[in-house]
Amino acid sequence: MLKVGVLGAGHLGKIHLRLLNQSEKYELKGFYDADIMNGTKVETEFGYTYFDNINTLINAVDVVDIVTPTLSHYECAKKAMEKGKHVFIEKPITNTLEEAETLLVLEQKFGVKGQVGHVERFNPAFTAVRESINQPMFIETHRLAEFNPRGTDVPVVLDLMIHDIDAILSVVNSKVIGIKASGVSVLSQSPDIANARLEFENGCVANLTASRISLKNMRKSRFFQKDAYISVDFLEKKVEVVKMKDAPEVPGDFDMILQNAEGVKKQIYFENPSILGNNAILDELESFADAINNNTRPTVTLQQGTEALKVALQIIDAFENKSLLG
Length: 326
Hints:
GO terms for molecular function: nucleotide binding. By secondary structure, this protein is α/β, with parallel strands linked by helices. The chain has 2 domains: about 110 residues, NAD(P)-binding Rossmann-like Domain (Rossmann fold), CATH 3.40.50; about 170 residues, Dihydrodipicolinate Reductase, domain 2 (2-Layer Sandwich), CATH 3.30.360.10. The strands form 2 sheets. The protein has a 9-stranded mixed beta sheet with strand order 8-9-10-7-11-12-13-15-14. Strands 3-2-1-4-5-6 form a 6-stranded parallel beta sheet, sandwiched between helices. Helix 7 crosses helix 9. The chain is globular. The two termini are about 45 Å apart.
Protein backbone atom coordinates (compact mmCIF):
# COMPACT_ATOMS: atom_id res chain seq x y z
CA MET A 1 0.00 0.00 0.00
CA LEU A 2 1.15 3.49 -0.78
CA LYS A 3 1.61 5.79 2.19
CA VAL A 4 -0.36 8.98 1.59
CA GLY A 5 -0.79 12.30 3.33
CA VAL A 6 -3.31 15.07 2.68
CA LEU A 7 -2.51 18.77 2.61
CA GLY A 8 -5.58 20.80 3.47
CA ALA A 9 -8.53 19.77 5.65
CA GLY A 10 -11.29 21.99 4.35
CA HIS A 11 -14.58 20.74 2.91
CA LEU A 12 -13.01 18.77 0.05
CA GLY A 13 -9.95 17.83 2.08
CA LYS A 14 -12.12 16.02 4.63
CA ILE A 15 -13.78 14.08 1.81
CA HIS A 16 -10.35 13.03 0.52
CA LEU A 17 -9.30 12.00 4.03
CA ARG A 18 -12.38 9.82 4.47
CA LEU A 19 -11.97 8.11 1.09
CA LEU A 20 -8.23 7.55 1.42
CA ASN A 21 -8.78 6.13 4.88
CA GLN A 22 -11.17 3.50 3.49
CA SER A 23 -9.16 2.76 0.33
CA GLU A 24 -7.36 -0.57 0.08
CA LYS A 25 -4.67 0.99 -2.12
CA TYR A 26 -3.47 3.63 0.33
CA GLU A 27 -2.33 3.80 3.92
CA LEU A 28 -3.40 7.19 5.26
CA LYS A 29 -0.64 8.55 7.50
CA GLY A 30 -2.35 11.82 8.31
CA PHE A 31 -2.83 15.38 7.18
CA TYR A 32 -1.50 18.92 7.45
CA ASP A 33 -3.53 22.10 7.64
CA ALA A 34 -2.10 25.59 8.05
CA ASP A 35 -4.96 26.42 10.44
CA ILE A 36 -3.91 24.72 13.67
CA MET A 37 -7.37 25.12 15.23
CA ASN A 38 -9.01 23.44 12.26
CA GLY A 39 -6.33 20.74 12.19
CA THR A 40 -6.78 19.79 15.83
CA LYS A 41 -10.58 19.91 15.44
CA VAL A 42 -10.50 17.50 12.48
CA GLU A 43 -8.09 15.20 14.33
CA THR A 44 -10.35 15.14 17.39
CA GLU A 45 -13.56 14.69 15.42
CA PHE A 46 -12.42 12.06 12.90
CA GLY A 47 -9.30 10.51 14.40
CA TYR A 48 -6.91 11.27 11.53
CA THR A 49 -3.36 12.11 12.61
CA TYR A 50 -2.64 15.84 12.42
CA PHE A 51 0.86 16.98 11.46
CA ASP A 52 1.57 20.58 12.45
CA ASN A 53 4.60 20.69 10.11
CA ILE A 54 4.18 20.23 6.37
CA ASN A 55 7.70 18.88 5.83
CA THR A 56 7.25 16.21 8.51
CA LEU A 57 4.16 14.92 6.75
CA ILE A 58 5.78 14.97 3.31
CA ASN A 59 8.76 13.01 4.63
CA ALA A 60 6.43 10.34 6.06
CA VAL A 61 4.61 9.43 2.83
CA ASP A 62 4.99 8.24 -0.76
CA VAL A 63 2.10 10.31 -2.16
CA VAL A 64 1.01 13.84 -1.29
CA ASP A 65 -2.64 14.72 -1.93
CA ILE A 66 -2.90 18.51 -2.28
CA VAL A 67 -6.36 19.85 -1.42
CA THR A 68 -5.32 23.34 -0.32
CA PRO A 69 -6.50 26.66 -1.83
CA THR A 70 -5.28 27.10 -5.41
CA LEU A 71 -2.83 29.85 -4.45
CA SER A 72 -0.74 27.34 -2.50
CA HIS A 73 -0.88 24.41 -4.96
CA TYR A 74 2.46 25.27 -6.54
CA GLU A 75 4.48 25.63 -3.34
CA CYS A 76 2.99 22.45 -1.85
CA ALA A 77 3.64 20.43 -4.99
CA LYS A 78 7.14 21.81 -5.38
CA LYS A 79 8.05 20.83 -1.79
CA ALA A 80 6.73 17.32 -2.31
CA MET A 81 8.27 16.72 -5.76
CA GLU A 82 11.69 17.94 -4.65
CA LYS A 83 11.55 15.24 -1.97
CA GLY A 84 10.72 12.60 -4.59
CA LYS A 85 7.04 12.30 -3.72
CA HIS A 86 4.21 11.68 -6.17
CA VAL A 87 1.55 14.40 -6.14
CA PHE A 88 -2.19 14.46 -6.65
CA ILE A 89 -3.29 18.09 -7.09
CA GLU A 90 -6.88 19.30 -6.97
CA LYS A 91 -8.01 21.37 -9.95
CA PRO A 92 -6.94 23.84 -11.16
CA ILE A 93 -3.37 22.59 -11.15
CA THR A 94 -1.90 25.94 -10.08
CA ASN A 95 -2.72 29.64 -9.94
CA THR A 96 -0.57 30.64 -12.93
CA LEU A 97 0.55 29.01 -16.14
CA GLU A 98 4.20 29.63 -15.24
CA GLU A 99 3.78 27.66 -12.00
CA ALA A 100 2.17 24.76 -13.85
CA GLU A 101 4.93 24.66 -16.44
CA THR A 102 7.53 24.61 -13.66
CA LEU A 103 5.83 21.58 -12.12
CA LEU A 104 6.11 19.80 -15.47
CA VAL A 105 9.86 20.34 -15.33
CA LEU A 106 10.06 19.13 -11.72
CA GLU A 107 8.02 16.03 -12.58
CA GLN A 108 10.65 15.00 -15.11
CA LYS A 109 13.63 16.11 -13.03
CA PHE A 110 12.69 14.09 -9.94
CA GLY A 111 11.08 11.14 -11.73
CA VAL A 112 7.74 11.40 -9.95
CA LYS A 113 4.16 11.13 -11.18
CA GLY A 114 1.44 13.73 -10.92
CA GLN A 115 -2.31 13.75 -11.48
CA VAL A 116 -4.80 16.63 -11.47
CA GLY A 117 -8.22 16.27 -9.86
CA HIS A 118 -10.47 16.83 -12.85
CA VAL A 119 -13.03 14.53 -11.31
CA GLU A 120 -15.59 14.66 -14.15
CA ARG A 121 -13.30 12.37 -16.17
CA PHE A 122 -14.41 9.69 -13.70
CA ASN A 123 -18.10 10.54 -13.77
CA PRO A 124 -19.85 7.26 -14.70
CA ALA A 125 -22.04 9.01 -17.29
CA PHE A 126 -18.99 10.38 -19.09
CA THR A 127 -16.99 7.15 -18.90
CA ALA A 128 -19.99 5.23 -20.27
CA VAL A 129 -19.90 7.16 -23.56
CA ARG A 130 -16.28 8.30 -23.70
CA GLU A 131 -15.34 5.81 -26.41
CA SER A 132 -18.42 6.74 -28.46
CA ILE A 133 -17.37 10.40 -28.69
CA ASN A 134 -15.40 10.41 -31.91
CA GLN A 135 -14.34 13.61 -33.67
CA PRO A 136 -17.16 15.83 -32.40
CA MET A 137 -17.60 18.99 -34.48
CA PHE A 138 -19.91 20.96 -32.17
CA ILE A 139 -20.04 20.80 -28.38
CA GLU A 140 -22.31 22.65 -25.99
CA THR A 141 -21.93 22.63 -22.20
CA HIS A 142 -23.92 24.15 -19.35
CA ARG A 143 -22.57 24.07 -15.80
CA LEU A 144 -24.88 26.01 -13.53
CA ALA A 145 -24.77 26.12 -9.73
CA GLU A 146 -26.67 27.77 -6.94
CA PHE A 147 -24.73 30.46 -5.11
CA ASN A 148 -22.20 29.25 -2.57
CA PRO A 149 -19.70 31.69 -1.01
CA ARG A 150 -17.03 28.96 -1.04
CA GLY A 151 -14.92 29.32 -4.18
CA THR A 152 -16.01 32.84 -5.10
CA ASP A 153 -12.47 34.13 -4.58
CA VAL A 154 -11.70 32.91 -8.12
CA PRO A 155 -13.51 33.51 -11.44
CA VAL A 156 -16.28 31.07 -12.31
CA VAL A 157 -14.08 29.85 -15.18
CA LEU A 158 -11.55 28.40 -12.71
CA ASP A 159 -14.22 27.35 -10.24
CA LEU A 160 -16.67 25.56 -12.56
CA MET A 161 -16.03 25.90 -16.29
CA ILE A 162 -12.56 24.32 -16.09
CA HIS A 163 -14.26 20.92 -15.55
CA ASP A 164 -15.84 21.19 -19.00
CA ILE A 165 -12.69 22.64 -20.56
CA ASP A 166 -10.74 19.55 -19.48
CA ALA A 167 -13.45 17.13 -20.63
CA ILE A 168 -13.63 18.84 -24.03
CA LEU A 169 -9.85 18.86 -24.50
CA SER A 170 -9.79 15.14 -23.66
CA VAL A 171 -12.09 14.29 -26.60
CA VAL A 172 -11.12 16.91 -29.20
CA ASN A 173 -7.71 15.95 -30.54
CA SER A 174 -6.93 19.37 -31.97
CA LYS A 175 -5.36 22.69 -31.04
CA VAL A 176 -7.44 25.62 -29.80
CA ILE A 177 -6.92 28.46 -32.31
CA GLY A 178 -9.57 30.95 -31.26
CA ILE A 179 -11.41 32.05 -28.14
CA LYS A 180 -14.24 34.50 -27.67
CA ALA A 181 -15.71 35.04 -24.23
CA SER A 182 -17.67 37.29 -21.94
CA GLY A 183 -18.09 37.30 -18.18
CA VAL A 184 -20.27 39.20 -15.73
CA SER A 185 -19.70 39.86 -12.03
CA VAL A 186 -22.96 39.92 -10.09
CA LEU A 187 -22.23 39.10 -6.45
CA SER A 188 -18.47 38.54 -6.47
CA GLN A 189 -15.45 40.62 -7.34
CA SER A 190 -14.71 38.16 -10.16
CA PRO A 191 -17.14 36.96 -12.87
CA ASP A 192 -20.03 34.79 -11.66
CA ILE A 193 -21.43 34.07 -15.14
CA ALA A 194 -19.31 33.27 -18.18
CA ASN A 195 -19.73 32.14 -21.75
CA ALA A 196 -16.91 31.06 -24.03
CA ARG A 197 -16.64 29.90 -27.62
CA LEU A 198 -13.63 27.74 -28.43
CA GLU A 199 -12.57 27.18 -32.03
CA PHE A 200 -10.29 24.26 -32.84
CA GLU A 201 -7.88 23.77 -35.71
CA ASN A 202 -9.90 20.81 -37.03
CA GLY A 203 -13.06 22.92 -37.30
CA CYS A 204 -14.71 21.83 -34.07
CA VAL A 205 -16.50 24.55 -32.11
CA ALA A 206 -17.35 24.36 -28.40
CA ASN A 207 -19.77 26.71 -26.66
CA LEU A 208 -19.41 26.71 -22.85
CA THR A 209 -21.64 28.41 -20.27
CA ALA A 210 -21.00 28.50 -16.54
CA SER A 211 -22.84 30.25 -13.71
CA ARG A 212 -22.63 30.09 -9.93
CA ILE A 213 -25.70 32.23 -9.23
CA SER A 214 -28.38 30.08 -10.85
CA LEU A 215 -31.68 29.04 -9.32
CA LYS A 216 -30.99 25.39 -10.06
CA ASN A 217 -28.00 23.12 -10.58
CA MET A 218 -27.18 21.77 -14.03
CA ARG A 219 -24.16 19.98 -15.47
CA LYS A 220 -24.87 18.93 -19.04
CA SER A 221 -22.74 18.51 -22.15
CA ARG A 222 -23.89 17.74 -25.69
CA PHE A 223 -21.60 16.37 -28.37
CA PHE A 224 -22.55 16.50 -32.06
CA GLN A 225 -20.58 14.44 -34.54
CA LYS A 226 -21.11 12.73 -37.88
CA ASP A 227 -24.12 10.45 -37.59
CA ALA A 228 -24.41 10.82 -33.81
CA TYR A 229 -25.64 13.04 -30.98
CA ILE A 230 -24.46 12.29 -27.44
CA SER A 231 -25.80 14.02 -24.34
CA VAL A 232 -24.14 13.64 -20.93
CA ASP A 233 -25.83 14.71 -17.71
CA PHE A 234 -22.98 14.80 -15.21
CA LEU A 235 -25.30 15.75 -12.34
CA GLU A 236 -28.02 13.12 -12.83
CA LYS A 237 -25.50 10.63 -14.25
CA LYS A 238 -27.56 9.94 -17.34
CA VAL A 239 -26.70 9.74 -21.03
CA GLU A 240 -28.58 9.92 -24.29
CA VAL A 241 -27.02 8.47 -27.43
CA VAL A 242 -28.79 8.99 -30.75
CA LYS A 243 -27.13 7.57 -33.87
CA MET A 244 -27.90 7.33 -37.57
CA LYS A 245 -27.10 4.68 -40.13
CA ASP A 246 -28.10 3.98 -43.71
CA ALA A 247 -31.75 3.00 -43.81
CA PRO A 248 -32.61 -0.59 -44.77
CA GLU A 249 -34.21 -1.12 -48.13
CA VAL A 250 -37.32 -2.43 -46.42
CA PRO A 251 -37.78 -0.55 -43.14
CA GLY A 252 -39.56 -2.20 -40.25
CA ASP A 253 -42.88 -0.89 -38.99
CA PHE A 254 -41.24 0.85 -36.04
CA ASP A 255 -38.03 2.05 -37.73
CA MET A 256 -37.45 5.81 -37.56
CA ILE A 257 -36.43 6.96 -41.04
CA LEU A 258 -35.33 10.43 -42.15
CA GLN A 259 -34.88 11.51 -45.76
CA ASN A 260 -32.91 14.59 -46.79
CA ALA A 261 -33.46 16.84 -49.82
CA GLU A 262 -31.19 14.63 -51.94
CA GLY A 263 -33.27 11.58 -51.18
CA VAL A 264 -30.73 9.93 -48.88
CA LYS A 265 -32.49 7.93 -46.17
CA LYS A 266 -31.10 7.41 -42.69
CA GLN A 267 -32.38 5.32 -39.84
CA ILE A 268 -32.32 6.79 -36.34
CA TYR A 269 -31.63 4.44 -33.46
CA PHE A 270 -30.84 4.78 -29.78
CA GLU A 271 -28.13 3.24 -27.61
CA ASN A 272 -28.38 2.81 -23.87
CA PRO A 273 -24.91 2.34 -22.39
CA SER A 274 -24.72 0.82 -18.94
CA ILE A 275 -23.91 3.35 -16.23
CA LEU A 276 -22.28 1.84 -13.18
CA GLY A 277 -22.54 3.60 -9.84
CA ASN A 278 -19.23 4.79 -8.42
CA ASN A 279 -17.53 7.34 -6.22
CA ALA A 280 -15.68 9.48 -8.75
CA ILE A 281 -13.29 11.00 -6.20
CA LEU A 282 -12.30 7.59 -4.86
CA ASP A 283 -11.88 6.33 -8.41
CA GLU A 284 -9.57 9.18 -9.40
CA LEU A 285 -7.44 8.72 -6.28
CA GLU A 286 -7.19 4.95 -6.76
CA SER A 287 -6.46 5.31 -10.47
CA PHE A 288 -3.46 7.40 -9.46
CA ALA A 289 -2.31 4.62 -7.14
CA ASP A 290 -2.57 2.19 -10.06
CA ALA A 291 -0.52 4.51 -12.28
CA ILE A 292 2.21 4.67 -9.64
CA ASN A 293 2.23 0.94 -8.88
CA ASN A 294 2.12 -0.11 -12.54
CA ASN A 295 4.32 2.74 -13.81
CA THR A 296 1.64 3.81 -16.28
CA ARG A 297 0.35 7.17 -17.43
CA PRO A 298 -2.08 8.86 -14.99
CA THR A 299 -5.59 9.42 -16.33
CA VAL A 300 -5.31 13.21 -15.99
CA THR A 301 -1.66 14.15 -16.35
CA LEU A 302 -0.03 17.35 -15.14
CA GLN A 303 0.39 18.25 -18.81
CA GLN A 304 -3.36 17.93 -19.38
CA GLY A 305 -4.07 19.92 -16.24
CA THR A 306 -1.74 22.60 -17.57
CA GLU A 307 -3.53 22.69 -20.94
CA ALA A 308 -6.89 23.10 -19.22
CA LEU A 309 -5.51 25.94 -17.10
CA LYS A 310 -4.02 27.60 -20.17
CA VAL A 311 -7.37 27.67 -21.97
CA ALA A 312 -9.17 28.83 -18.80
CA LEU A 313 -6.77 31.74 -18.37
CA GLN A 314 -7.15 32.67 -22.05
CA ILE A 315 -10.91 32.76 -21.56
CA ILE A 316 -10.48 35.09 -18.59
CA ASP A 317 -8.18 37.31 -20.67
CA ALA A 318 -10.78 37.32 -23.44
CA PHE A 319 -13.38 38.81 -21.07
CA GLU A 320 -11.63 42.13 -21.65
CA ASN A 321 -10.22 41.54 -25.11
CA LYS A 322 -13.44 39.90 -26.41
CA SER A 323 -11.34 37.96 -28.91
CA LEU A 324 -8.09 36.08 -28.49
CA LEU A 325 -6.10 33.82 -30.74
CA GLY A 326 -4.25 31.03 -28.92
